[in-house]
Amino acid sequence: MKNPEFSILKVWPLAALGGVLLYLVFGNVSTILGAPISLATIFEAAMVGPMGDSAPALQFSYVYLPQLVISLLCGAGLGFAGAVFQQTLLNPLASPATLGVSSGAQLALTVALLLAPEFHANHAFAIALTGSCLAWGVVALLAGRRLEDPLTLVLTGMIVSFTLAAITTCLFVLKDSYLNSMFIWGAGDLTQNGWNGTAFLLPKLALGAIVVLTLSRQLSLLGLGSDVARSAGVSAGLSRTILLSAAILMSAAITATVGIIAFVGLAAPHIARMMGARCVVPQLLCAAVMGALLLGVADQGLQFALQDLASFLPAGALAGLLGAPLLLYLMMKMSTRRPELDDTPMLRAPVNHGTAIQVRIIAGLGVLLVLCLVIALSVPWSGLDAISVWRLPRVAAALLAGCALGCAGCLAQRLIGNPMASPESMGISAGAITGTIAVMLLLPMAEAAGQTIGALLGSLLVFAAVLYFGRRQSFDPRSLILVGIAITALADALILVFFATGDPRLGEVLALSSGSTYRITFDTLFLPAGISVLGLVLALPTLRWLEILPLGAVTGRSLGLPLASARFLIILATSLLTVAATLLIGPISFVGLAAPHIARALGLRSAVTQFAGSALAGGAVIVFADFIGRQMARPYELPAGLLSILVGAIVFVAVLSFSRLFCPGMIKRQDTSVRQGAAVD
Amino acid sequence: MRRFILAAVAGLFLCQHLVSPRAELADTDQPPRVISLDWGLTSTLLALGAAVPAIAEKKSYADWVGDGQAPATAVDLGLRLAPDMERLRELQPDLILITPQFSSIEPRLNLVAKTRSFATFTPDRTPLANATEITRQLGQMLHLDHNAVQLIAQSTAALDALRETATPAQKACEFLMVNFVDDTHVRVFGNGSLYGDVLKAAGIRNAWTRPTNFWGYGTASLNALLRQPEAGLLIVGPVPLDVQRQLQPDRSLGASDTLLDRLPAVQAGRYRVLPAIWSFGGLPEATALAKALMAADLPECDHEKS
């Protein structure tokens, strides 16, 4: 494994993390056994087995040691599987978590626990595997022939992943008393009570790894593109299926054992590549080692820092705290690459309509929105006064949030000329909710206004960070999303840590972040309405510039654009709109990403028409989602934020496949983007 | 001007006082039509023999709290923390009963009917005393004073019986009261929980002294139980399937060597499995727990110390 590109300088993260891990293990073991110990004692204890029935001995051999082993195993498995995903699909953003595989396992396990607890207890692995495979099947089916286009695949993966997670959360909302164990499991808790987990996991991971390593030649050829693989005599379809099955098997086994561990599967292969591992086998092994170290250090660090409390804090969620800054740091070191506009096929309108037709499309969207409003308000009829008291404020909130998100998404995508940008995918919504929660916890006396300022600061901070890191990569779509994912992972980890401490304010925070219009009255509507109007007023004069901005900074400057002030205004407007929407329906929604795409796919290509179209589409989606949430399981309320993901995803997929059917021009472009995708690594 | 403002403020206070639910309810002869959103209060209402026109999350209530005592005619209101307001309004209640955990939706509920909040769990951590007081107040409010007195007497009798029949060897023992979340995590009920108060009232010692949350329990990994190896284990249902399996004495299906069956209490047989009892409940649940502990015949401790 002599690789000239492996230099000491690049291997330092491995060495440093390894050193930290050893230090933590020594510290933890001596705390448990109550005496400073040597490596030999640990080894002896591990080999000989239980050292008697004293409490420290039981603690060491039934809890500590299995947990250490399982954290290393899971980390290694996730890193390895992530690397296989990324190499096979030529996609640096592929991982079990981003492609919906983990969410599929989670949904399947949750449904099984509700319907057949006995089956769930006996066949957790089979259930997780079925769920994972089904989720991947849906992703592959939706991506269709554009499977090799990195952006299409990740976008599809995100849709499926968001949708499945939303269904799972709906089940949590409806049946929380039955799913207590799923809350702990879902956060990725590594606690063990014996060697059963290891015995269960090890053969599955070994099987997957052996399959992949046997096919390492095919894997490295697939990494050069399926055309190259085919010309070298490799059946691209078959070997890809086998390799992905092996990776899915590994990730399903890990999900069934310890739950969802975000981020490791995505970050570890990246870090391995950034350290300079180029060939397939070193890259796989390096990713595995890196994953093991990330998860191991997160878990041991927790035990070390918190001693007894560690059982409350799931390491899986906290791996994000460790991996996110590391990924950001390494990204800054990565070489920059100027993206081509053609790289992003979705940026262009499939059809070039004239102005008259565009106006008619907007009018059509307006009629649709009014129809949604009428249905949401009047079905089922229950008298005018009941409707005005109970439904009107909620429908108004949904409308406001939807329009604000649609506008914010359109602004963000146009600002950086990036089809993957949105308040949600860039982590701006996560920043807003984190700011709100931070103010709520640190300043208990602060009222809504204080929380709003917190939300605004949070979203501005995240936006600034995304732009700072993204700028070094010239706003390359992939790295932008990576930054967004890293920041969202950080925010999520902070929120999960708070949940795990069992604070009585949990209910309030949950209500905020699950995104329901349930508590909204006319009084609480004023503030978000004011903020979004302010955002809109700031946004309107920038629409002219938004026509030029996607063309790049050079073009913009030569056309006499006041670049700095234009960007600042747009950023401020986007943040204000996002904050308004987050205050109303929480951070989880898919509308900011989907609405501009829906508008574009319908043929609205100028900045003004796309802006108007995505506002109308966003409003219609959330108003309809809120209506469904109230009526679908009546009297059981489902949060509008969750359902807007479902409704948004369905509409989005429908519109995309519609435009694909009628505009075959879009499909031809995939060939160019595949090459470029391969060139990134 | 200042006098005018003062007068207006005083007037406001007076008005508020006049329309406060207590004042209004005391005047009427008919018992008010009451709907409770909290399961613990619902269970107390049912035990008092009051009419229960609606239950939130009715099916889950039957699974977790009520043993088939809930009337079939009761309307399902939907989620406890987000009841269907339009359906609630159609039922035309005189009074809605909540706990402080519902305070965020209280302004909305007030638009339907007057609400009254009863707290079983309070910062002074006396849920059993609070539950007794709530039972008395509910009885008064619903003109069922006699039933309330009877219910309280039953509860006192069950606790007294438990205290008097416990042997000195049982009283020497310390117990950990747990509910398994999965096979590696437990909720341990300490001071300030309803279970903990029942133990205290019966003179049985609770071994859990570490921090607990507002409802008096702490979520912990199984290994936290190793800290008190000499304590007995009281396992409250429902018990997850894999835990049931690991606790089974005959392990014909291969030796599953886990921490659970290595726990000193399990090895020495110092544990009892109790039926499922809603831990956030009221007086009926406390009585049920006292009876279940009686029936379980607590393990004895033979260790010398303490």
UniProtKB/TrEMBL annotation, chain A:
Family matches, as SUPFAM superfamilies: ABC transporter involved in vitamin B12 uptake, BtuC
TM regions (residue ranges): 32-50, 62-85, 97-116, 123-144, 150-174, 195-215, 242-268, 280-298, 310-330, 361-383, 395-416, 428-446, 452-469, 481-500, 520-540, 568-595, 607-628, 640-662
A Pfam family reported for this protein in Swiss-Prot or TrEMBL: FecCD
Keyword Iron: no
Topology class, membrane: Multi-pass membrane protein
Main localisation: membrane
Record carries keyword RNA-binding: no
Signal peptide (UniProt feature, chain positions): none
Keyword entries, A-Z: Cell membrane, Membrane, Transmembrane, Transmembrane helix, Transport
Localization in the cell: Cell membrane
Family: Belongs to the binding-protein-dependent transport system permease family. FecCD subfamily.
PANTHER family in alphabetical order: FE(3+) DICITRATE TRANSPORT SYSTEM PERMEASE PROTEIN FECD-RELATED, FERRIC ENTEROBACTIN TRANSPORT SYSTEM PERMEASE PROTEIN
Descriptive protein name: Fe(3+)-hydroxamate ABC transporter permease FhuB
Organism: Roseibium algae
Automatic annotation (TrEMBL), chain B:
InterPro entries: ABC_transptr_periplasmic_BD (IPR002491), Bact_iron-sidero_bind (IPR051313)
Domain of life of the source: Bacteria
UniProt cross-references to SUPFAM superfamilies, sorted A to Z: Helical backbone' metal receptor
Major localization class: other
Residues in Fe/B12 periplasmic-binding domain copies: 33-306
Listed Pfam families: Peripla_BP_2
UniProt keyword annotations, A-Z: Ion transport, Iron, Iron transport, Signal, Transport
UniProt subcellular location: Cell envelope
The family this protein is said to belong to: Belongs to the bacterial solute-binding protein 8 family.
PANTHER family: IRON III DICITRATE-BINDING PERIPLASMIC PROTEIN (PTHR30532), IRON(3+)-HYDROXAMATE-BINDING PROTEIN FHUD (PTHR30532:SF1)
The name this protein goes by in its record: ABC transporter substrate-binding protein
Source species of the chain: Roseibium algae
Organism placement in taxonomy: Bacteria, Pseudomonadati, Pseudomonadota, Alphaproteobacteria, Hyphomicrobiales
